[in-house]
């Protein structure tokens, strides 16, 4: 039983299937990058992301073709580079709004999120996917618009890399919740280690078929579904 005030959710591998992201969302963004760079280079978010790609490449003069090549290489290797995620977020948000895309949540997730929310547990999202992508993902679920369940949205741009404790300190400060009252749910042991190093409670989600299932989550508490995570809240100061 976790005695906490808030739960912070990873998406891919935790609330939702990695296979869906890789097989549906990645091709959708890949086929639209060229047009995005070509037609909307003046959009401030696109411009900022392109500058970040050039920085990461160490090529300040990289043209649109070279930028697109880098984006495709990161997609191939599933590198969660912030500018890739920003540009994917723009394309996906439009795809969700247009009805081309509907997100995926494992069957156990939405009923448990609704229950925790009703019980007064605050819910936040922390994903490598950009905040724009996260919001679109929760807005367009098969169970309807889930955004009202979520209090805060964090990504690698507003919080930092997911495997660095500093990112979790930043989220705790922004969320206004003491580290020990925050529970992070993720499939990746490196992320759970970083959250724990920042003083958070942690639980690894291990779903058969997910990339980190075999590796496991080390000595973190673990569950196969959200039903396996007991939470009570509103008892700050108790010893459990
Ligand atoms: C709606 S977010 C899309 C998924 C994605 O691109 C991603 O990188 C998710 O990574 P996570 O940190 O949630 O494992
Ligand atoms: Mg994940």
From TrEMBL:
Pathway listed? Amino-acid biosynthesis; L-methionine biosynthesis via salvage pathway; L-methionine from S-methyl-5-thio-alpha-D-ribose 1-phosphate: step 3/6; Amino-acid biosynthesis; L-methionine biosynthesis via salvage pathway; L-methionine from S-methyl-5-thio-alpha-D-ribose 1-phosphate: step 4/6
Q: What class of enzyme is it?
A: hydrolase
What one GO molecular function would you report for this record? 2-hydroxy-3-keto-5-methylthiopentenyl-1-phosphate phosphatase activity
Which cofactor(s) does the record list? Answer: Mg(2+)
Catalytic activity line of the entry: 5-methylsulfanyl-2,3-dioxopentyl phosphate + H2O = 1,2-dihydroxy-5-(methylsulfanyl)pent-1-en-3-one + phosphate
- Keyword annotations of the record: Amino-acid biosynthesis, Hydrolase, Magnesium, Metal-binding, Methionine biosynthesis
Q: Which SUPFAM superfamilies match?
A: HAD-like
Among NCBIfam families, the record links this protein to: enolase-ppase
Q: What PANTHER family has UniProt attached to this entry? A: ENOLASE-PHOSPHATASE E1
Its assembly, as annotated, is: Monomer.
Protein name, entry field: Enolase-phosphatase E1
Gene source species: Streptomyces apricus
């Amino acid at each position: 039983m976790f005695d906490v005030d808030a739960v912070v959710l990873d998406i891919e591998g935790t609330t939702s299937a990695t296979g869906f992201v890789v097989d549906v969302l990645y091709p959708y963004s890949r086929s639209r990058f060229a047009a995005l760079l070509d037609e909307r280079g003046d959009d401030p978010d696109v411009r900022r992301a392109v500058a970040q790609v050039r920085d990461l490449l160490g090529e300040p003069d990289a043209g649109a073709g070279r930028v697109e090549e880098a984006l495709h290489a990161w997609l191939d290797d599933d590198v969660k580079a912030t500018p890739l995620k920003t540009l994917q977020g723009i394309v996906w948000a439009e795809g969700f709004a247009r009805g081309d895309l509907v997100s995926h949540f494992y069957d156990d997730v939405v009923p448990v999120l609704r229950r925790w929310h009703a019980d007064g547990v605050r819910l936040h999202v922390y994903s490598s996917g950009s905040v724009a992508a996260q919001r679109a993902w929760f807005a367009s679920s098969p169970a309807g618009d889930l955004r009202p369940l979520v209090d805060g949205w964090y990504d690698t741009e507003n919080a930092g890399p997911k495997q660095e404790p500093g990112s979790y300190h930043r989220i705790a400060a922004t969320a206004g919740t003491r580290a020990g009252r925050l529970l992070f749910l993720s499939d990746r042991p490196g992320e759970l280690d970083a959250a724990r190093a920042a003083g958070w409670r942690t639980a690894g989600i291990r779903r058969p078929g997910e990339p980190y299932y075999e590796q496991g989550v080390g000595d973190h508490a673990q569950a196969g579904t959200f039903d396996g995570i007991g939470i009570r809240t509103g008892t700050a100061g108790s010893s459990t």
